[in-house]
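User: Hey, my collaborator sent me this sequence without any context and asked if I could get a structure. I don't really work with proteins. Can you help?
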Amino acid sequence: MLATRPWFWPLSWAGGYLGTVLAARSWLPPAGAVPASLAALVVLGPLVWGAVLTVNDLHDLPSDRRNPRKATAPLVTGTLSRADLARWHRRFSTAAMVLAATVGPAFAIGTGVVLLLGWMYSAPPLRLKARPGADVAINAVVVGVFGPAAGWCLYRPVTEYPPVMVVLGVLLGAALYLPTTVIDVDADRVAGDATSAVRWQPRFCYRLGVGLWTAAIALWLVCCRLDLLVDGQATPTQFAMAPALLVAYAVLAKRPSIARMAAVSAVFAVPALDFLHTCVGP
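Assistant: No problem. I've predicted the 3D structure and written it out in structure-token form, which is a compact way to encode the shape of the chain:
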């Protein structure tokens, strides 16, 4: 269970739920869709995260040993061996694909792509985690695009997923992930991993993150004003929260930590829930 990091599961669930409500215009799935929704919940939570994080732990030992935040990683503590992690990676990947196939072809294909991207992120020879820019892009796409699209495809064709949501997802995902490379910059530098923060330096990463976050909010407000996603999307809450979102990110990302970035996400949840309320309607 420790290898799957349960505290990360809500990250996928939140994106998936947003896509679900946007597609179905309902807070809860119809009775006939409950089995598929529960299967998707398990895939997006423990199975995908288990597969991605076991391969990550398998190849991150040099930096994890130098990183206080990773002191409890199974390979660092000796709880699991390299062979154990490889075995669990295969088990999680297989289970994710089998269960995803019961949800639907689009969901299964998306799950397969996410598992492949997770391997590309951590494992040599590609190891995109150690390639500045690629480390941010791959996480932004997985969390900001594939997560919401996974929820959307439970109810509507994935080809109908709004393009503006793709752009928003990438901007938001990149802005939220970029500071996490700063958190681990010292351990990654010593281990020889050229992450974005190692190559570009924390100050530039902070400025870039603020720029991405500002662009996402600006695009979001345009969507609200023009009703590009949902009629009546432009509520007072959306515009009132924009300054708070900018201030929260500018302050909390200055000296980032997982708790601080979680707080930024919590602030963002306020306009997000208001948006979902407009999707569902009275």
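In plain terms: The chain has a mean pLDDT of 94. You can pass these tokens on to your collaborator as they are.
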